[in-house]
């Protein structure tokens, strides 16, 4: 059915157009025949299509049509590669077209505020730039296939505990600098078809009825023109939500919400224009509906999933170059995860994979001698002593033992948060015992978020963090272990020494309905580098099978608030590899406390042995700006900025300074402003000080200059009243007018 001009829906009777404001079931919008509008299917994502096989009247998370399970966001985050994210988006888009899905719900771009968040596997990183660039690439890829995205969960949905009620209490600077920029980048750069609002409240108001978020920020400031869809069941008050800017309520509630909307219009409490506006937006989604293309290349997409997964895993440690496993190495594989891989997270994003590779089979194909002992069972059943002894015997007979450890699906999922970052105790004991029994030990980790390496890290020779790598993760891990591919992932989240060290620790997951984002902008590595606290592995860390040198760093200002960075990277080792250039900016300029350094640019480059490449990155205004709560906007403070190239957030390998003119901010001045603000004011401060000191008795000027410090925080009104003789009220009024004129001009 060819869609008519979506504007037509507003000509329909109120009840008919209100129908468009909610789903007809769990996974689709209602068709509106009299307007020529077909039903639009919206299903999860993000790392594969989960199109429910049965009817849409129930939730059925585990009954979906087979689709490729690509590496989930936790892995893509570690790739630090927009190309990886875009290729996944493209492939998901293709499969969605094949399966008749016009809108795939993803990507998830919430920031990893705590390693405990049960849904971290669906999010990219603790850093907003990395998250935003990867999320935008995913949307670009998916939407280029004609399949709409749904960027989620807007906003400040950083935990699962009480996710449907909790109020994330976050100050505006923190929202603007940490929790909103990924959404902002994606909306402004890629025009996603939909944005999904979060379940939680933000500063006391449900995200689903948050006018400031859904209308002022999203639409008025960022120019979003698509549909705001609720997270499934996130609408509390349908009329308030519509007023705030929420267009489509999902899933359908048998029309209950729509009836409330109609009643509110009839009662004169809701402007019908708001119904028209949202109905028009939802109707426009019909343009995305196409006939299912009927199939996709299952083998090609599996091969793609394998290729991309190998670019995501992070080699954390590789003492004595134990990896890659040399041909002829006698390898013992230990750990049930080698045969029963953990490759995706639980909950709404769960994909019914077309097939699943396990590392054990792939290692056996690649190496002549591979023995196997499960070591543990995933549900903790079985004779632990016998399993352990079998594993130790295998380790003793091998040159290298590779232990596949990690978290079971029941340990982490959508819907709840973890309470610990530890590996199960039985696995820790097994790793230690294996390391003591065999000559060399490699640990491969599978988990949706970071796990602690304490208690065993120093016992082993190498650690390869796979996180969750999708359906081809097993073969991809084998490719990395054998050296068919060089590891090139970098941590997108810090691995702390202790959970207690993490910045949100004392404020996670909150209490009595509130979670206070007390660490402010000091999230993840921003905290660790600012307070100089040691971690096990910093954000950005990751090794390869080769070494890379950095040189010729040049930073050039290209305007008052922009710069370019150029540097040369050289593969100084003997193997080809991919290297991630990480550019951080550090400054103390401006009136607010800045993190010691912040990621402001990155690029992944391929290098053959001996090859050099010049990499140029542009640092835009936002790379230097902070959110000024007084100005209600981004400000680049005049001053010096150090551009740092990092091997990680904790290790600077080159740096260069640049001085920026920045913004001229004429601060607002009133009689309520402090004495210090008056005297420090860039336009009237000097005049005021001169007049003030001139009015002092001879010789008292120095004393009074000292006194100014003491009374600096006193509001000028009170200062003038109490010490009025020196500054006549008329003069103050005149100076306020001068200051305001300068501010306006
Ligand atoms: C999740 C969303 C998901 C939706 C539909 C919700 O519970 O939070 O991410 O897209 O369900 O399955």
Automatic annotation (TrEMBL):
The chain positions of domain Fibronectin type III-like read: 579-649
Sorted keywords for this record are:
Carbohydrate metabolism, Glycosidase, Hydrolase
Whether Hydrolase counts among this entry's keywords is: yes
Which Pfam families does this UniProt record tie to the protein? Fn3-like, Glyco_hydro_3, Glyco_hydro_3_C
Fetch the Gene3D superfamilies from UniProt: Glycoside hydrolase family 3 C-terminal domain, Glycoside hydrolase, family 3, N-terminal domain, Immunoglobulins
A single GO molecular function, which one?
A: hydrolase activity
Q: Which family does it belong to?
A: Belongs to the glycosyl hydrolase 3 family.
The protein's name in its UniProt record: Glycoside hydrolase family 3 C-terminal domain-containing protein
This protein's species is Geodermatophilus maliterrae
